Amino acid sequence: MQPEGPYRFTHMLGGSPVGKAWAAIDGQGRFATVAVLDAAVAADVKWRQSFVSVANALAQSSDGPAFTYADFSAASPWVAYPAEAGPGAARLFQALGVEYQAVDVAPQPVSGVPQPVSGVPQPVSGVPQPVSGGPPAPWAIHGNPIPGQAGDSTTQPVSAAPASPAGETASAHTVQMPVVQPGVQSELPTHDPFAAPVRRIKPSPPPKRRTGLWAALSALAMVVVVGGGVGIWAVTSGDPADPVPTPPVTSTAFPGEAQALPGLKPWAEAALRSPEERALAVAGPSMVFLEAVFTGYLRNKADNALLREGPVTVSRRCSGFVINHGGYVLSNGVCLQPPPEILLGGALNTVANVLVSEGRLAAKDLDAFVRDRLKTSAFTGKGAADQPELKLYGQLNVAKGDVTAAPAVSGAVVRTLPVEAGNLTLVKLAQENLPTAELNPSAVVAADTSVMLLGYDTTDTTYRSAEYRVETKTVTVSGVDDRSALTVYRVNEDLGPYSKGGIAIDPSGRVIGMVDSDLLRTDKANRILVPVSTMVGLLGAAGIGNDLGPADKVYRSGLEAYFAGDESTAAARFDEAAKSSPANLLAQSYREAAMASGRNGGTSDRPAWAVPLLAGAGGALAVGLVVLVVLVLGRRRGSY
After folding, report:
1. Which superkingdom heads the taxonomic lineage of this protein's source (predicted)?
2. Number of folded domains that form the chain
3. Structural domain contains residue 116
4. C-alpha pair distances (Å), 233 with each of 229, 264, 605, 613
5. What string of H, E and C letters represents the secondary structure of 42-64?
6. With contact defined as beta carbons under 8 Å apart, do 562 and 590 qualify?
7. Secondary structure of residue 149 in the 3-state scheme
8. What residues make up the domain containing 62?
């Protein structure tokens, strides 16, 4: 099964023990070769890292093929090369050091030995008709391809250690074209030694000279040469005098295993270069995965006796987004600042699961154990009067649970609104110059309108070290609830339990609401949107503005150029944004996409008359073809 991406595979070009090379075509009909690392091999971190490193090394070498698009974070990583670069996919496997076997496309030889024919050959009138050759290989066509409600409190089972892998490579692949051999013509004898002096059979007269046909062919060739030459000159002579320099390749299209990975791939979530992709690209870098870790002790309320020796840890995970480039993040209040009864329930659930694993409590009695102790127990700090210790961490891009060191960034709660006032929390992370989202205070959210949600979620079943990525979904506003002082919006779908604190965006990528739990539902699904006005109120009370940094503005101008087709300008601005705000991995990815597209034919200035001239040359070519066809058909009729 082909991996998710902008290409449709047409046929396999070759294979190796670690992956396959495919012929592919993108949404614009442009051809490419794609190297795909098998998912089972990619599960080995060393193989995946080698695949990434070799692809980048080839791209940066003087004679190596440069890829146009890649997805190194997919289950089956892949790299796409333009068709005109030749067998780029095969070269990648060869460079990995593995045996590569190309699919044999050579024509089969025709066996047999020509047999002599007795008798006198008779002359045949007419001229043999030309036979067209075989179809061209797809690599002769040049293309331009452009570069994924459980409760908030959960126990923490021990996760398995990650596996490690080995090294990689392949042989060059060449596409052979069948060669059409001209027919062998035997020379007719001019004299028959056994014949009478007088010829018994009169030879056919020689065919008429094709003066008109050859004249038409000559004229047509002249039109093609002149029109093509003028067209090429017109297209290439309009380069600007001072072009914007394209920055050198300094990083991969997607970061390697040792780096963080983008939490969201807008190009995989929406049609390529569509308004939806652009909106996701604007808001995506600002998403933050938050984990609040509470450490305390379970006590009996009556005498403060410990129910279990040693501290108990409760972890709560949710989404958030950067609201100010200085490191300020907005998220859900109950997730990061839960009331005491929620923390107590989480602590009791943790202890109950430990007792089950120790064989001291039957699994069927777990719920009863928690329920019976909710009213008689307390979750405190080291002292009975102390609060549990809170440590807060945030991660941008792809995140993992239970991470307290880099790339996780420590944080602290600045201010919180209670549930009835909006259920929001403002957090300050210990890192600045973070990619920031922009609020839309004037947004009007009405029933039956569509909005796009962004929030973190996971498919892993092991809670402790689960991996989280930004998910997206277009939903419909099913209703507006303005019965209380706080107006909220209800939507018809959600992204999962960890999307609480995520955002809803408008078509320009600006935030129009925050995702929260719908307490009126039995499943408490995250299908409520808290309005922007509530966020603005919290920020005002804390003295924090929704301020974009210089890197945010440059990144947005790069997106504007990229989606307008100005690849050179886009690449330069993405490069500046990526260097100024390293946490914005999408700036790096879009920089590589813009550079790849620019290498394969980005925008350039040309004379205004170039298009009409080319159109005229094309018209002349069409007329010449019509004349040629008429002459050929007329000649065929005259030969019968």
Report:
1. Bacteria
2. 4
3. no
4. 6, 42, 13, 11
5. HCCHHHHHHHHHHHHHHHHCCCC
6. yes
7. coil
8. 7-102
